[in-house]
Design goal:
alpha+beta, Immunoglobulin-like, 4-stranded antiparallel β-sheet, 3 helices, 11 strands, elongated
Amino acid sequence: MNLDISTGVQTAFFLTLAGVVISLFIGIRTIRAGNKLMFFRKRRNLVMRGWRLIIVAGFLGVFAVLLNRFAEPVAYQIFPPSPTVTQTSTVTETPTITLTPTISPTPTITPTISITPTPFVPTDVYALFTSVVTPNPDAIFSKPQIAKALDKDHLPVEPGKTFENPLGKLYGAFSYDKMTDRAQWTAIWVRLVDNMVVCYESIPWNGGTGGYGYTECAPTVMWQAGDYEVQIFVGINFKVKADFSVTGNPPTPTITITPTRTLTPTKTITPTVPSPTPSPSRTPIPTRTPLPTWTRLPTNTSVPSRTPTP
């Protein structure tokens, strides 16, 4: 409650007067009670206490007088009052005849939807199921915590409920228990304004019976501003969901022009027809020179016989 200076001073003045009255009343009662005691020391202590209260009442009375006389002017010197604008009265228009309101129709009862629809696995995602292992109906999941990053233990780093563009990949970290290996599990990221599935993953479970896990989403289109929801299923049974919001407009993608390859014209070589080269004339094979014939040696001429001397 706001109080002006005048009201504050008056309040303090009346409180001080109340203190004076209470101190005088208690002091007089204390003195009267002390005079009735038989023991000297106790009687003296009680009487002195009563006189002290009376003295305090006197100081409070003096303070109340000073407060009532000087407090407000001193306060105005420290906090000078600002002039208030006096409103000039305007001409009051002559009231016109007000038509009597007709009977308004009674509003009809608007039905209130009390049943919240349970999330379900879309048909396109259900068609991708490959597991034949029956999931444990007692499997439990904690509510996913949405964050931009995870640590080495798959725990969220600075989780939140609202994220501002530009955004990249988001993670939904959770804890789980009583899961069955090779049972189908599904995580679906939905934009609530149009119930559009922006991301999903549906695979046979391979994380053991209990621990920490996560689901991730990096939509093919940029994150649009609005409310989103992460839904966790085991088989076709819904387990848990988490809501979060994205604010701000996504950055406008810049169009990168891909350079087209221009073919460089190659130099066309005009084939030249070679002039006919005269074939070399055939060199005649030399005739074979006959070898010299073997000349027969002359026969040995017999030696003349010795003519005996007569």
